[in-house]
Amino acid sequence: MELLIEIAVEELPAIPFLKECENIAPKWQAVLQKHGLQSEFEFEYSPRRLVFFHKDFAERQSDGTVVTTGAPKSVALKDGAWTAAALSFAKKCGIDESELEFRQVGGKEVLYHAAVQKGRASREILGEMIEELFKSLNFGRAMRWGEGEFEFI
Q1: Which residues pair with 105 in a beta bridge?
Q2: Are 86 and 15 found together in one domain?
Q3: In whole angstroms, what is the distance from residue 88 CA to residue 139 CA?
Q4: For the chain, which terminus, N or C, has the lower number of CB atoms within 10 Å?
Q5: Which pLDDT belongs to residue 68?
Q6: Whole domain around residue 70: which residue ranges?
Q7: Are 103 and 126 within one domain?
Q8: How much is the pLDDT for 147?
């Protein structure tokens, strides 16, 4: 899908804006990468506008795998029975104790669980991503807007 993000602001102070301007596109690319939505984009700007245009933006994130490791086998298993540490790990992972397994990680045999994490729709997370970008921008002085903690020039 095509995506156009246009951010309109009061006129940004020239010198701080020009200093930060070269960092804006790489910072947006870092946000995209963090959320698994890398794509090529064009970045245009004026003192009152920041514009990002993606010709081919993903509709949703790719599904991923979340790996959780736990206690070593020597701690998780005592005399053939699961310890409190192992049962706690199973509860944390949302699995039954019969599904507990061990894998070699870093030279040690540890509790291991891999779960598929379904990718979220791009529309759901776009607001979070833009907020991350804004929080990463540094124009020097910043002010709080509204009653929240958010600061911007």
Answers
A1: 108
A2: no
A3: 46
A4: N
A5: 94
A6: 64-117
A7: no
A8: 81
Question: Cα separations (Å) of 75 from 66, 78, 113?
Answer: 23, 7, 16
What integer pLDDT is reported at residue 140 of this predicted model? 78
Using CB atoms within 10 Å of the CB of residue 14, give its burial: 0 to 12 exposed, 13 to 18 middle, 19+ buried: exposed
> How many other C-beta atoms can be found within 10 angstroms of the C-beta atom of residue 32?
20
Sign for the pseudo-dihedral over CA of 33, 38, 44, 49: negative
Alpha helices (runs of H) in the chain, residue ranges in sequence order: 14-34, 73-76, 84-93, 122-136
Query: What is the number of structural domains in the chain?
Result: 2
For the chain, 153 residues long, give each residue's pLDDT as a single digit of tens: 999 999 998 888 888 889 999 999 999 999 999 999 999 999 999 989 999 999 999 999 999 899 999 999 999 999 989 999 999 999 999 999 999 999 999 899 999 999 999 999 999 999 999 999 988 988 877 777 778 777 776
Task: Report the candidate in 120, 49, 33 with the shortest Cα–Cα distance to residue 41.
Answer: 33
Q: What is the CATH number of the domain that holds 57?
A: 3.30.300
Q: Are residues 81 and 70 in the same domain?
A: yes
Please state whether beta strands 151-152 and 143-144 pair in parallel, antiparallel, or not at all (unpaired).
Answer: antiparallel
